[in-house]
Amino acid sequence: MELVEWKWWFRYVVDILEGSVSCKKKLYEWYNIIQDNIYLIKKMEGYINALYQTMMDNKESMNLSSLKVMVPEEDKWIYIIALILHSKNLEKLFEKMNFASDIFKSTIEELLRKMEATSREGKQVYDINIEWINRVFTFNIIQLGRLQFGFGTITEPLYVVQNQVTKELKLFLDNQWFNEIGYIEEGEGKKEEVSRSKFEETELYLKGTEINIQEGRFLGKEICLMKPQWRLIRKPGDQIIEVHIPYGKRLEKEACIESFNRFEEICNLIPYKSNGYICRSWLMGGSIQSYIKPDSNIGRFRRLFALYPCYRSEKEIWRRVFNQEVKPEKDFVPRTELQRNLLNGYKKNEKFFGGAGIRL
Asked: What's the mean pLDDT in 47-68?
């Protein structure tokens, strides 16, 4: 695009984004600095070209391609402007693939959400997670209604086994240390306090440490499933759709189901064969189960997945539930039922462990 087109597109995108007025004002300040500086324009053009190439690589592979250029800390504000201008390429791609018009807007609004989040954390508004935002602007993450969907692979040692008659699922994790109540902690801990999970496949059977898929924790015993009644259907390295939950809105089951349905429609347009979904999040952890109501939005969302344990930093709960970077103190004043319930857990010295879920 020429400079005149850049200016028009920049104004168009910033104006349609819903979010912080102060963040939008900062974007205009940055753009005004760049447009009168040939050196900065050339640098920005390089980032736009790299973003375009990465986007096309992602489209071809339906997997995460790495950006072809590094972004130094001092260039992050320039890079954010490059993202906005590059979004014209993303819009053209969405139009070519017959995506609904609202998908583009909801996808790129992630930029303002991340800028607002860094501001709440007391950081500079440009200090966003570049790796994450690249995925949004290079056709690796798409927002459809309440949920975001990213093209990825099964990165953990997860094995999914299915009964060929009843369609019942069993999940196994290989070579994972877990504590006495069945959850994975950071590091291995003391050997006398932990156990190691196993998974084995032979010509005759599939055997491993059993997982309670309703609670997302190891049961501490091995089970053996005979072939051909049971079959391995997913394994590490298989393509999978990663489900992400944007911050800020109620997690209503009906809205989430609609998001899943819309993504299945997108898969038909691309075309892409979905092998299922994985959601790795603090709210999938088994240890919070006793602190949420079964009919709550979180409880209903969890039941859309088969759960398994995985390590997640407890700081994720502090940020997403309590909006702070440190563990809440006993004098923290809760504003929501979830805050009140988890705070009661902390008062009892409860530790909340991470988890994930798979949906096929």
From this structure: 84
Cα 252 to Cα 248: distance, rounded to the nearest angstrom: 12
Nearest Cα residue to 284 out of 237, 325, 244: 244
**Is the model's pLDDT at 65 over the cut of 70?**
no
50 Cβ partners below 8 Å, 6+ apart? 67, 68, 69
CB 223 within 8 A of CB 205: no
* Prediction pTM value: 0.91
Q: Which tokens in the block code for residue 210?
A: 């059993």
Name which of 104, 126, 124 is nearest 31 in CA terms. Answer: 126
Q: What is the pLDDT of residues 305-346, one digit of tens each?
A: 999 999 988 888 998 899 888 899 888 999 999 999 999 999
Give residue 76's Cα distance to chain centre: 22
Gap between the Cα atoms of 23 and 77, Å rounded: 12
**How would DSSP label each residue in 278-334?**
EEEEGGG-GGGGGGS-TTSHHHHHHTTSEEEE----THHHHHHHHSSSSPPPTT---
Three-class DSSP category at 248? coil
Say if residue 305 is exposed, middle or buried (CB neighbours under 10 Å; 0-12, 13-18, 19+). Answer: buried
What the block records as the tokens of 296 is 């709550």
Q: Which three-class secondary structure state does DSSP give residue 352?
A: coil
* pLDDT 10s digits, 237-252: 999 999 999 987 899 9
